[in-house]
Design goal:
The structure holds 3 protein chains of 3 kinds.
Chain A: H1 2-48, E1 73-76, E2 79-86, E3 89-99, E4 107-114, E5 120-127, H2 141-144, H3 173-199
Antiparallel strand pairs in A: 1-2, 2-3, 3-4, 4-5
Chain B: H1 8-13, H2 29-34, H3 39-63, H4 72-94, H5 96-102, H6 113-121, H7 128-158, E1 160-166, E2 169-174, H8 189-214
Antiparallel strand pairs in B: 1-2
Chain C: H1 22-44, H2 46-69, H3 80-90, H4 98-111, H5 126-137, H6 139-142, E1 161-163, E2 169-171, H7 177-180, H8 185-192, H9 204-209, H10 220-232, H11 239-258, H12 266-271, H13 275-282, H14 293-313, H15 320-338, H16 345-355
Antiparallel strand pairs in C: 1-2
Helix pairs in contact in C: 1-2, 1-3, 1-10, 2-3, 2-4, 3-4, 3-5, 4-5, 5-15, 10-13, 11-13, 11-14, 14-15
The chains are: A alpha+beta, B mainly alpha, C mainly alpha.
């Protein structure tokens, strides 16, 4: 019986000590961790929001807005939309958009749209499972340069194989199409639901996940 | 109880070559193969494992007199899991990008056989100093193997070698020129198996030659 | 090696056929592949010739190096490295950079063969291992298929040119690579479904071989003739090719019957991609295929079914090389269960059981 008691005490003490230690550690690291996670999302958002007259995906952006686009998010039709404001006016949107029918599953992108004219200000692929070195090349800024900076009516938003203006990635037409599909969804939201987006109340907790993801 | 034949220095260095956990004991292969797509990832995984292995070896050998035999494994696991959680939180707080690229493999250090293996086979039967040296040596051997594996894969796969990377600061060398197209498969999982295979072969060949010389 | 006297198990060793040396077999098979290689040069010109010559040369060199390193006699003249190189070359696209051919040869000879102990010891088909490595390592270059000229006008005078889709000669360069390349019929099928390739179905083009693709997959006819020649000379037995092709045909027929819009038909699947060259020349490799007739048939069916499963539902449009490699891995098990029973074996087994 004393053996059992000893086991009980040793395990309890050690587990308790470990718990205490971890709790202390948690207090120390909680702040930096939240900050890091915020920055990570923020970086993708800033990457796609408008900064220059003619946005270039290969140039690093450091646009400053009046508000915190990260905390000014809404959900619409399952899309999560971050809003950027300048001088009291809504200037840009970063729209989470899913491209259907990728080579493997779907892709999740963040599409930046300028509020005034719908120009694509950036596209960031947040999640994909395309073939490395083939379909996955669509994450490269050099590839995105031919899309970013154009308005919805400036070019034909489909791959050359389908009669559009966008070069398909050699050997990965499906991935290219899929990216355009995600962009098209965001453009449609901007065109048809612009007012709604502008007027919607921001989410209480901007970390909320909208269902289409 | 093993007789204390090995010198203290011997305990430290055996992990590097003679009993290298990856190349001789073939333990901990899962993280070794999964995260070593760059030299820096290999180093990072090695550093995280070093922290856990050193900490758990020391603590296990300190508490060994009070731990009843029948509950020793749960106790070791609690100790190891606590260290792993600490290292996971530290990485997330101060090395966010590294923690993202190592991903699930940081929490999975808990089940790395080297760590429980050293706790059970060494730290629970040896002095604190010896256990610390053993843990450090084994961890350094693990780190060395992961670094070499990661560096080889990175050099062949993308022509670069990365020693450090955090935000804008990085220590990265372009060894094979700007125009090197890269051999993608080396960065993908098959490349890990191929490279490790050749590393094992090289180690065995060198060992054979050494054995011949001593004889 | 050298079980030539044992004529009972005709198919059980590389020296199976009454005194024909393995080197003689290697050279015969290589010679049989030459028409298909020549046809690809006729279609693609220098861009194809360079791939063939460099791959064969690299394979021979790596074979010599590996044998020198292992302090074994150098045996390039037995033709096995040349044959590996030739088969590998025929699975590659024309115009592939020479250094990539070199990497493929390295993987085929060194990684897939030499490290396992050389000829006869390798569990996986060397040429297939090389091709699969290249496919995963260089997905871009390995899926850029030049459009064949189809006119017989060779490209010898213009090594850096190719034909674009409209049939005019253009210079090869990074910026027009899409103009001179096209998806293979299988790529089209994977991307757009059967209606995209309906025109090809039952056309003589895929049969004679004027479709784009790797060097050896353009001409199903020449490969088929070569295979039949090998069969007639008894260098290969009928089991693997027939069960491979038969299972592909059956699979294609069934899926095509269920949904003709989505799945292409029998001739399409038999004559596109690597099925022909795979069934006659790769799956029949003595070292990496089963020894006994029953096992050979199981092996062939496995290859055929896996090929079709990969073609129709997996991430790559073509599955022959993956299928052959996967089935290579099963050969020891297949051999174990299909070994012919020794005379009196049953009785001995029964006795052994009774004794326990």
């Amino acid at each position: 019986m004393p053996e059992t008691l000893k086991m009980l005490i040793v395990l309890t003490v050690i587990a308790g000590a470990a718990g205490l230690g971890l709790a202390g550690m948690h207090d120390v690291t909680e702040g930096p961790i939240i900050e890091n996670e915020r920055n990570f999302t923020l970086r993708s958002i800033t990457k796609v929001l408008p900064d220059a007259e003619k946005p270039d995906p290969c140039v690093k952006k450091d646009a400053v807005f009046d508000n915190e686009p990260m905390n000014d998010a809404i959900c619409l039709d399952g899309h999560k939309i971050y809003r950027a404001r300048k001088n009291g006016e809504l200037v840009g949107l970063a729209i989470e958009s899913i491209g259907d029918k990728a080579y493997d599953g779907t892709i999740l992108t963040l599409v930046g749209v300028r509020m005034s004219d719908g120009v694509l200000t950036g596209v960031e692929v947040l999640r994909h499972r395309e073939t490395p070195g083939l379909g996955a090349l669509f994450t490269r800024c050099e590839y995105q340069q031919q899309m970013v900076g154009n308005g919805p009516d400036d070019i034909k938003w489909s791959v050359k194989k389908d009669g559009g203006d966008i070069d398909q990635l050699s050997g990965a037409t499906i991935s290219s199409r899929c990216m355009l599909n995600a962009i098209a969804k965001a453009q449609r939201l901007w065109r048809e639901r612009g007012d709604e987006i502008a007027q919607a109340e921001p989410l209480e907790d901007s970390r909320e996940v909208c269902d289409a993801r | 109880m093993p007789a204390n034949k090995t010198s203290h220095l011997g305990e430290l260095f055996k992990g590097l070559w003679k009993d290298n956990p990856i190349m001789v004991l073939l333990l901990g292969l899962c993280p070794a193969l999964a995260v070593t797509n760059s030299a820096y990832n290999g180093l990072g995984m090695g550093a995280a494992t070093t922290f856990v292995l050193l900490g758990s070896n020391i603590l296990v050998s300190i508490i060994k007199p009070i731990v009843p035999k029948s509950v020793r494994i749960p106790v070791y696991i609690v100790v190891i899991a606590a260290f792993v959680t600490v290292v996971d939180m530290l990485l997330k707080a101060y090395q966010y990008e590294l923690s993202r690229s190592l991903g699930l493999f940081v929490p999975l250090i808990v089940v790395n056989c080297i760590i429980l293996g050293r706790a059970e086979a060494f730290a629970s039967r040896n002095t604190v100093l010896r256990s610390a040296l053993d843990g450090l040596g084994m961890a350094l051997g693990f780190t060395l193997a992961l670094f070499v594996l990661g560096a080889l894969r990175e050099i062949i796969g993308s022509g670069t070698i990365t020693f450090f990377q955090m935000g804008e600061t990085e220590i990265k060398f372009n060894l094979l020129g700007e125009n090197y197209p890269g051999i993608l498969v080396m960065i993908l999982p098959p490349g890990a198996f191929l490279t490790l295979g050749f590393m094992l072969a090289a180690r065995n060949a060198i060992q054979k030659r050494l054995d011949k010389k001593t004889r | 090696m050298g079980q030539t006297e044992n004529k009972l198990y005709v198919s059980s060793s590389p020296h199976a056929h009454g005194g024909i040396s393995s080197s003689r077999i290697m050279w015969t098979v290589s010679a049989v592949l030459l028409p298909a290689a020549g046809w690809s040069v006729y279609l693609f010109g220098l861009s194809a010739l360079m791939v063939i010559l460099s791959t064969v040369a690299f394979c021979a060199v790596f074979e010599a190096i590996s044998q020198l390193m292992a302090k074994k006699p150098v045996s390039i003249r037995d033709g096995s490295a040349v044959l590996t190189g030739l088969i590998l070359a025929l699975t590659l696209p024309p115009g592939l950079p020479i250094w990539i051919c070199g990497v493929g040869a390295f993987v085929a000879i060194i990684v897939a063969k030499a490290v396992f102990g050389g000829l006869g010891q390798n569990p996986f088909n060397p040429a297939m291992t090389g091709r699969v490595f290249l496919l995963i390592a260089f997905p871009g270059p390995l899926t850029r298929w030049l459009v064949p000229s189809g006119t017989g006008e060779t490209l010898f005078n213009h090594p850096v040119t190719a034909y674009d889709a409209s049939g005019s000669l253009v210079e090869l360069g990074a910026n027009n690579i899409d103009a001179v390349t096209a998806a293979t019929p299988l790529g089209l099928l994977a991307e757009n479904g059967a209606h995209a390739v309906a025109a090809l179905e039952n056309s003589t083009e895929i049969f004679i071989g004027q479709i784009n693709g790797s060097l050896g997959e353009t001409s199903g006819l020449l490969i088929l003739l070569g295979g039949v020649f090998l069969l007639a000379r008894r260098i290969i037995s009928w089991h693997i090719p027939i069960s491979f092709l038969g299972s592909v045909a059956l699979f294609a027929a069934i899926t095509n019957m269920i949904d003709p819009d989505h799945f292409a038909g029998i001739t399409f699947h038999l004559f596109t991609g690597g099925v022909m060259i795979g069934a006659w020349f790769m799956a029949t490799d003595y070292v990496t295929s089963p020894m006994f007739p029953g096992g050979k048939i199981a092996f062939g069916i496995g290859c055929g079914v896996l090929t079709m499963v990969i073609r129709l539902w997996a991430g790559y449009p073509e599955g022959v090389s993956f299928a052959v490699l996967l089935m290579n891995a099963t050969v020891p098990i297949i051999d174990r269960y299909t070994r012919p029973k020794k005379f009196g074996w049953k009785r001995m087994a029964a006795a052994a059981k009774g004794g326990e």
